TrEMBL record, chain A:
Modification sites for 4-aspartylphosphate: 55
UniProtKB keywords: Phosphoprotein
Family annotation (PANTHER family): CHEMOTAXIS TWO-COMPONENT RESPONSE REGULATOR (PTHR44591:SF25), STRESS RESPONSE REGULATOR PROTEIN 1 (PTHR44591)
Response regulatory domain mapped to chain residues: 6-122
Electron transport listed as a keyword: no
InterPro entries to which the protein is assigned, alphabetical: Bact_response_regulator, CheY-like_superfamily, Sig_transdc_resp-reg_receiver
Domain of life assignment: Bacteria
GO biological process, one term: phosphorelay signal transduction system
One Pfam family linked to the record: Response_reg
SMART domains on file: REC (SM00448)
Record-given protein name: Two-component system chemotaxis response regulator CheY
From TrEMBL, chain B:
Organism name: Novosphingobium taihuense
Highest taxon in the source lineage: Bacteria
Top EC class of this enzyme: transferase
Reactions the enzyme catalyzes: ATP + protein L-histidine = ADP + protein N-phospho-L-histidine
Protein name listed in UniProt: Chemotaxis protein CheA
Length: 123, 738
C-alpha cells in the first residue's frame, strides 16, 4: 500500500481548490481536484483515493448529493469524506453528519487545522 | 503556486461570481424565482465570502456575510422575494462589486453602513411572526437596538452591524464553541486525569474509524488504563454494528480537556464521553433502541438536504401554482438560459494564447509563401498543398475560437449602468437583451465596454424621455433599451436601440451650425445630420449633465469603434427611437483583404470597406480640373482617388479609363473609388501593427506579410479618402452637387 495519502478536493471555486491544494501538497499529500459533485463522481469512478474533501454548495451535484451517491455504492461507503462549511454551528455539523460526512472543515481554514482534520480521518 | 497567484484566481472568480449573481437577480426580478436561480445568486455571494475569509479581506467578508445571510433566508423561503427586496439585493451586489474592487486594488472599502442596515432590516422584517413586508422595524432580537432598520443610516446602526459582523467573524475563526465543562477538567486533579469513552454504532458510519481516535489519544500522551469488555455478549447475540467496548484513558495534567474533546469533534453523539475521575463508564447503546439521532440538534424543521438540489419554497402561499408555472417554464423552454452547463475547462494565461495566435499567423504566412514557391515550380495544384491549406485554416479558426468570448460578459454590465442612471436621472429603463452568447475576440470584447457604456448613457440621457413626457406621447412610463448582437457575414453586428424621442434633427443642425461644424447653407440628408452628433466638440444637451453631456462622448465612441476596425451607423425616427448599429470584425488579428497592385507597390484594401470593383467605360469617367475625376456609377457620381498618388507609388496607371476602380464605403466621406492597376488576390491577411514595429502612419492601418515574403501596407480607407478629398477642398461639395 502506498504511504502517501491521496486526497480528492471538490469545490467549484478555483481559488478555493488552489488554496486547498497549496495547503495540502505542502504536507506531502497527493492532491487531485474536481470542480463539482458530478466531476468528482466521474473521477472517483476511475481513480482511488483515501480522503475526499468537498464543498457543499456547488452546481450540478452538491456536496451532500455527492456524499449520498458515494455512500450508496459499496466502493466508497467507508471512504472518509470531509465537508467544507462556513459555519460551525452544531446544527450544520449534525446535518453534515446525517448526510454521511465523516467530518468537517470550517472555512476559512487554517492550513494546520486542515491537515489535522485530514490526518484525523485517514490511516 | 504563490499566494499572489491564488489571489489572482480568486479575483477572476469574483468577477464570475458577481456576474452569475447579477444574472440570477435579474432573472428573479423578471419573475423567475425558482430554487436554481436563487441558489445561483446565493452561491455567487457565498463563494466570494469563502475566498474573502481565506485571504483575510475583512471588510469584504463582513459585507458578504450579512448579504449571504439574507440570501440564505431568501433561499429557505423565510424571506419572500418582492420587488423592493430584489432592489435592495441588486444594490447590495453593486456595493459588493465595489468591495471586490477595493480588495483587489488595495483601495478603501466602500461605505456600506446604510446598505448593511437595509439588509439586516430585510431579514428582521421577516424574522418576527409579523409578516409585514414593509421595512417597518420589528424588533429582531429583544436586546438589539431597533435603530438598525430605521431609515437614517450611519452612526448607531453602523455600530450595530459592525458588532454583528464581529460576532460572525469570531465564530468563524474560533470554529468550535467549547462546552462549559472546563471546570470539571480543572477539578480532575494534578497528576493525571482520565476520560471514559464508548463509541456507539454510529461511530463506524460514514467512513469514521474509532481506532484512529484511540491512536490520536495515545499520540497526545494518553494511556489506555482499562478496556471494558464486560458488555460483550455471547457470540450468538453479537451485533457487529454495536459498540460493546469501552475505554478509560488517562492523560497528564498538561493535556487539556479541550484538545481531547477535539479528537471527538467529528463523531459527536456517536461516541459517549465521560470526563473526570469519578465518572461512570457510559452504557452500551444497542442499535435498535439507541441513537435517537444526534439528539436535539438533528431535528431541524426542514428535511436534511441530501438531495442534489435542495428545493426551495418560494412564495410559499401557492405551491401548486408555482409548481405548475415552473413546469410550464421548463416545458416551453423559456426558462432563462441556465448558466451554460460548465464543461471541463482550464484556465490559460493570456500570454500563452497570444503566442499561439501569433504562431498561427506566422503559419498562415509561411504556408502562403510555400504555395507561391510551389507555383513558381509549376506545382500549383499539388494535392498536399490543398490539404495543408485546409488544415491551416482549421487550426487558425480553432485558435481564434479559443480567444472568442461571449459578448454577454459586456452586456452583463449594462444592468448596473442602467440602475445608476435610474437613480441619477429618474428615468427607469427596461432592458431587453438578445444574442448574448454571440462570440467575438477577447481583445474586441475588452475594448467594446467603453463605447457601449457611452452609447447606453447617451440613449438614456438624450433618447429616452422623462416619464411624464412619455405618458403624454402615449408610451409606457418605463423606457426600453434593446441590446442585441449577431454574426453577419464574418462580422458582428451590435445594436443599441431605445424607444425614446429620436434624434431632434433641427436642433442637431442648429447646433452644428452654431458650432461652426457646417455652414448655414449646407444641404444635408437626414442621415448626414444624424452623423453630425459624432463630430468632435458636438453636444446638444441643453443642460450639461455629468452623464453624457460633456460633448466628448460621441466622437470618442466613433473613434473607439473605428480603432476596432468597425463602423457605427445611426437609424433614428422622430418619436419612435434611435438605434445605433456597430459593425465590428470578429478579430483584430486577421482580416479579409483585397491585394492590389499600384505601380511598384502592393497594397491591401480591407474587404470590409469594399463595395464593388469595376473597369469603367470611357464615357463614365469625367475629368474635374487638372488631376481629379469623377466616375458615374449607375447614375451616382463618386470621386476617384488615385491610390498611387496617395501612397507615392511610381509607374502607376494614372488614367482612370485604363485602371481598375475599387468602390469603397467610408465612415466620414461617403463612397469613393480607389484607382489601382490591378487586383491580384483576395485573401486573409495577418495584421501586423505598424505602431509597434515602426510608427503610426496616416492612411495606413497596418502591414502584412505576403506569400512571397514582401511586406504590404494595409490601407486605412477612411482616413486615406477623407484626407485626399480634403486636400482638394471643393471635391466633397461638388460630389454633393452632382
Amino acid at each position: 500500500m502506498n504511504n502517501t495519502t491521496r486526497i480528492l478536493t471538490v469545490d467549484d471555486s478555483p481559488s478555493m481548490r488552489a488554496l486547498l491544494n497549496h495547503a495540502l501538497s505542502g504536507h506531502g499529500f497527493d492532491v487531485s481536484q474536481a470542480e463539482d459533485g458530478m466531476a468528482a463522481l466521474d473521477w472517483l469512478a476511475m481513480n482511488e483515493v483515501d480522503v475526499v474533501i468537498t464543498d457543499i454548495n456547488m452546481p450540478r451535484l452538491d456536496g451532500f448529493g455527492l456524499i449520498e451517491r458515494l455512500r450508496e455504492g459499496s466502493r466508497h461507503r467507508d471512504r472518509p469524506i470531509l465537508v467544507l462549511t462556513t459555519e460551525s454551528s452544531d446544527e450544520k455539523k449534525a446535518r453534515a453528519r446525517a448526510a454521511g460526512a465523516t467530518g468537517w472543515i470550517v472555512k476559512p481554514f487554517d492550513p494546520e487545522k486542515l491537515v489535522a482534520a485530514v490526518r484525523r480521518v485517514s490511516h | 503556486m504563490t499566494a499572489e497567484e491564488i489571489q489572482a484566481i480568486f479575483f477572476a472568480e469574483c468577477e464570475e461570481s458577481l456576474e452569475a449573481a447579477e444574472q440570477g437577480l435579474a432573472a428573479c426580478r423578471e419573475g423567475t424565482q425558482d430554487s436554481d436561480t436563487v441558489n445561483a445568486v446565493f452561491r455567487g455571494v457565498h463563494s466570494i465570502k469563502g475566498g474573502a475569509g481565506a485571504f483575510g479581506y475583512v471588510a469584504l467578508q463582513g459585507f458578504t456575510h450579512v448579504f449571504e445571510t439574507l440570501l440564505s433566508d431568501v433561499r429557505d423561503g423565510t424571506v419572500p422575494i418582492t420587488e423592493s427586496l430584489t432592489d435592495v439585493l441588486l444594490r447590495a451586489l453593486d456595493t459588493l462589486s465595489d468591495h471586490v474592487t477595493a480588495a483587489r486594488d488595495g483601495g478603501e472599502p466602500p461605505e456600506d453602513g446604510a446598505l448593511l442596515a437595509e439588509l439586516t432590516a430585510a431579514m428582521a422584517a421577516n424574522a418576527g411572526a409579523a409578516p409585514t413586508a414593509a421595512p417597518e422595524p420589528t424588533a429582531a432580537a429583544p436586546s438589539e437596538p431597533v435603530a438598525a432598520a430605521s431609515p437614517e443610516p450611519e452612526s448607531a446602526s453602523d455600530d450595530f452591524d459592525f458588532d454583528l459582523d464581529l460576532d460572525a467573524l469570531l465564530d468563524d475563526i474560533s470554529g468550535e464553541i467549547q462546552p462549559e465543562a472546563q471546570e470539571a477538567a480543572a477539578d480532575a486533579g494534578p497528576p493525571r486525569w482520565s476520560v471514559r469513552l464508548r463509541p456507539h454504532s454510529g461511530a463506524m458510519r460514514n467512513g469514521s474509524e474509532p481506532l484512529l481516535m484511540l491512536r490520536e489519544m495515545s499520540d497526545l500522551g494518553g494511556r489506555c488504563d482499562v478496556c471494558d469488555v464486560s458488555s460483550v455478549p455471547p457470540l450468538d447475540s453479537f451485533d457487529t454494528g454495536t459498540g460493546y467496548l469501552g475505554w478509560t484513558f488517562s492523560f497528564p495534567a498538561d493535556v487539556s480537556e479541550a484538545s481531547v474533546r477535539d479528537i471527538f469533534d467529528f463523531v459527536g453523539d456517536d461516541c459517549s464521553l465521560a470526563f473526570g475521575a469519578d465518572a461512570e463508564m457510559p452504557p452500551v447503546q444497542h442499535r435498535d433502541v439507541a441513537t435517537p439521532a444526534p439528539a436535539p440538534v438533528a431535528a431541524p424543521a426542514e428535511p436534511v438536504p441530501t438531495k442534489a438540489a435542495p428545493s426551495v419554497a418560494v412564495m410559499a402561499e401557492k405551491p401548486g401554482e408555482s409548481e405548475a408555472a415552473r413546469a410550464a417554464l421548463a416545458a416551453n423552454g423559456s426558462a432563462p438560459p441556465a448558466p451554460p452547463a460548465p464543461g471541463q475547462s482550464i484556465r490559460i494565461e493570456l500570454g500563452k494564447l497570444d503566442k499561439l495566435i501569433d504562431a498561427v499567423g506566422e503559419l498562415v504566412i509561411a504556408q502562403a509563401m510555400m504555395a507561391q514557391r510551389l507555383a513558381g515550380q509549376g506545382l500549383a495544384v499539388a494535392e498536399e498543398m490543398a490539404m495543408i491549406e485546409g488544415l491551416t485554416r482549421d487550426i487558425q479558426e480553432s485558435a481564434m475560437s479559443i480567444r472568442a468570448q461571449p459578448i454577454g460578459s459586456v452586456f452583463s454590465r449594462v444592468p448596473r449602468i442602467l440602475r445608476e442612471l435610474a437613480s441619477s436621472t429618474g428615468k427607469h429603463v427596461r432592458l431587453e437583451v438578445s444574442g448574448e452568447s454571440t462570440e467575438l475576440d477577447k481583445t474586441v470584447i475588452e475594448r467594446l465596454g467603453e463605447p457601449l457604456t457611452h452609447l447606453i448613457r447617451n440613449a438614456v440621457d438624450h433618447g429616452i424621455e422623462p416619464a411624464d413626457e412619455r405618458i403624454a406621447a402615449g408610451k409606457t412610463a418605463e423606457g426600453t433599451l434593446t441590446l442585441s448582437a449577431e454574426h453577419r457575414s464574418g462580422r458582428i453586428l451590435i445594436r443599441i436601440g431605445d424607444d425614446g424621442k429620436g434624434i431632434d434633427r433641427e436642433r442637431v443642425l442648429a447646433k452644428a451650425i452654431e458650432k461652426g461644424l457646417v455652414t448655414a447653407d449646407t444641404v444635408l440628408s437626414k442621415e448626414e445630420i444624424d452623423l453630425l452628433i459624432f463630430a468632435p466638440g458636438f453636444s446638444t444637451a441643453q443642460q450639461v449633465s455629468n452623464i453624457s453631456g460633456r460633448g466628448v462622448g460621441m466622437d470618442v465612441v466613433r473613434q473607439n469603434v473605428k480603432d476596432l476596425g468597425g463602423r457605427i451607423t445611426i437609424d433614428s425616427e422622430p418619436g419612435k427611437g434611435t438605434t445605433f448599429t456597430l459593425t465590428l470584425p470578429l478579430t483584430l488579428a486577421i482580416s479579409d483583404g483585397m491585394v492590389v497592385n499600384v505601380g511598384d507597390q502592393t497594397l491591401v484594401v480591407p474587404l470590409a470597406n469594399v463595395v464593388e470593383s469595376l473597369r469603367p467605360e470611357p464615357h463614365e469617367v469625367q475629368g474635374l480640373g487638372a488631376n481629379r475625376s469623377m466616375i458615374n456609377v449607375r447614375g451616382r457620381f463618386i470621386p476617384v482617388i488615385s491610390l498611387a498618388q496617395s501612397v507615392g507609388a511610381a509607374q502607376a496607371v494614372c488614367d482612370p479609363r485604363e485602371a481598375v476602380l475599387i468602390v469603397v464605403e467610408t465612415e466620414g466621406a461617403g463612397r469613393a473609388a480607389l484607382m489601382v492597376d490591378a487586383i491580384c488576390d483576395q485573401r486573409q491577411v495577418v495584421i501586423k501593427s505598424l505602431d509597434t514595429h515602426y510608427r503610426s502612419v496616416e492612411g495606413v492601418a497596418g502591414a502584412t506579410i505576403l506569400g512571397d515574403g514582401r511586406v504590404a501596407l494595409i490601407v486605412d480607407v477612411d482616413s486615406l479618402v477623407s484626407r485626399s478629398l480634403a486636400s482638394t477642398g471643393a471635391a466633397a461639395s461638388l460630389a454633393e452637387a452632382a
